[in-house]
Amino acid sequence: MLGIYLYLVKVFATMILMKESKQIELFSDELDKLTERYMSEFDLTVASMVGVFEVKIHELIYAVLTSEDEGDEEEDEEETI
């Protein structure tokens, strides 16, 4: 259990210290590896993979907008108190 905790602390510390441009580069590299692997191992068409990415884009945007809306509601509640 301690090993997992120390690993997570190391990963979190690395993420905090890493510049956003480096994080974007690593994320992009991982997406490249993932898409290449799925294209070689599965029978997915490019269209279906792009469709999955489109759905994920909408889910990410919705999650951000929803979290912002919840923050606004909390601020409204604080103002009325």
Distance between the termini: 43 Å
Share of residues in helices: over 70%
Q: Would you tell me the overall average pLDDT?
A: 85
Overall 3D shape: flat
Based on DSSP secondary structure assignment, what is the total number of beta strands? Answer: 0
> Could you tell me the strand content as a percent range?
under 5%
What does this structure look like?
- The protein is built from 3 helices and no strands.
- The chain has helices spanning 2-17, 20-41, 46-80.
- By secondary structure, the chain is mostly helical.
- It has 2 domains: 1-43; 46-81.
- Helices cover 90% and strands 0% of the residues.
- The radius of gyration is 19 Å and the shape is flat.
Question: What's the gist of this structure?
Answer:
With 81 residues, the protein is mainly alpha-helical. 90% of the residues lie in helices and 0% in strands.
List keywords for this structure.
81 residues, mainly alpha, 2 domains, 3 helices
Helices and strands, with pairings:
Elements: H1 2-17, H2 20-41, H3 46-80
